[in-house]
Write a structure and sequence with these properties.
The chain is built from one helix and five strands. It has one helix at about 1-60, and strands at about 70, 80-90, 105, 110, 125-130. The mean pLDDT is about 85.
Amino acid sequence: AVESTQSTGTAAAHVAVLQEKVAALQSVLTATNAQQEALNALESTVEELERGQQELKARVGSWPAGSYCIFANGECPAGFTRYSGYIKAFDTYSYNEQYIKAVQFGDSYMRCHGPCGRHQGNDAEFGLTTCCK
């Protein structure tokens, strides 16, 4: 009877150890499943971002429909026509920066006509270069 009680105790101890191992494996499995779900969500996000990136790449270099002009800065984009015009030697009240402030924007400009203040008048000039479609 003593042997029976000892073997029952030993068996119970083995069962308890096995139950702990099963619980540990279930915990690992649960964690693994959660990691797999997180990985699946990340893969889905990456695929969505890649699709968005492809859409953006397809739109690069394309212009919205319609008729409009943009300032030129070098060559005009495909489908646009270059137009240039200017007004030179128009008289202003004064040649100081309050009245004539030189600036270059792309291929267009505003500035004094010739050296500022050296002509009889306070002449300015304006040149506009655009690309239109």
